[in-house]
Amino acid sequence: xxxxxxxxxxxxxxxxxxxxxxxxxxxxxxxxxxxxxxxxxxxxxxxxxxxxxxxxxxxxxxxxxxxxxxxxxxxxxxxxxxxxxxxxxxxxxxxxxxxxxxxxxxxxxxxxxxxxxxxxxxxxxxxxxxxxxxxxxxxxxxxxxxxxxxxxxxxxxxxxxxxxxxxxxxxxxxxxxxxxxxxxxxxxxxxxxxxxxxxxxxxxxxxxxxxxxxxxxxxxxxxxxxxxxxxxxxxxxxxxxxxxxxxxxxxxxxxxxxxxxxxxxxxxxxxxxxxxxxxxxxxxxxxxxxxxxxxxxxxxxxxxxxxxxxxxxxxxxxxxxxxxxxxxxxxxxxxxxxxxxxxxxxxxxxxxxxxxxxxxxxxx
Length: 364
What we know:
Isopropylmalate Dehydrogenase, 2 domains, disordered N terminus, alpha/beta, 12 helices
């Protein structure tokens, strides 16, 4: 009996030593079917980093099929067929889109968020072992209201030389982003939610946002809640970021806070994120893609694919493919920890393709 069971025992020990898990996820029937995802390569480095994601997902044999559409930031509006594709597929992976500064067409990013009601933006800013940063123990999730505030685009010239810009804050949008933040904290075993505001000056607009956050916080007694003025928040972020856990913000502040937190934790090139609504989700680089228009990165093919690869892991988890998400995330983090293959923003000199090849090698 002992001799018969020995080969089985050796196989089990071997699997355990390889770090494999025998049971990770019990899907409902049909959940393993391949999912179609809308893919928008975008502008600048977008095609490079979305191409990197495609290579890695193909190497993993991930159950994802892409519908690809060419969209560029200088377009006046989204082509109807692209919007129809995202509505049909429910999920989109997107490279950065260049947004004109000053006059010209309106931001396609804002158009998409409003069209699909992607009211919550989530950026996960955390340290990665092997990537040195000024601060340790940074693990911040910035949840930003995505559809109103200063981004409403309600501007007009009253008289020549005088422009009026309206900041719109509603009870409905403030409540639902607060609920999303606390629900996220609850489901992800987070301990604290911090509301970022400027209610000392914008007493009605930001006051309404705070009132909504307080009402929602009262329904989650197990999660600590506090508030911080946005200018103090930025100072605290760069001096003691480890004090923050989940942060919930109005639209404009969230953009500033997320990029600051990303810079502290290793840079925008390694921070994943996405935009989500009731019915649809769009995954993209978490913090502002400031290098979208960097032609040098495009010519040298040295754009950092890490942020979008980690966003793709978030996408796979959203699609209920957790084992694939874990495998991708683990491979990316192993490459970062090893430190042999890094793009310039991470202190190296490697190309996008060299980083991709290293990630694929770590998948097995």
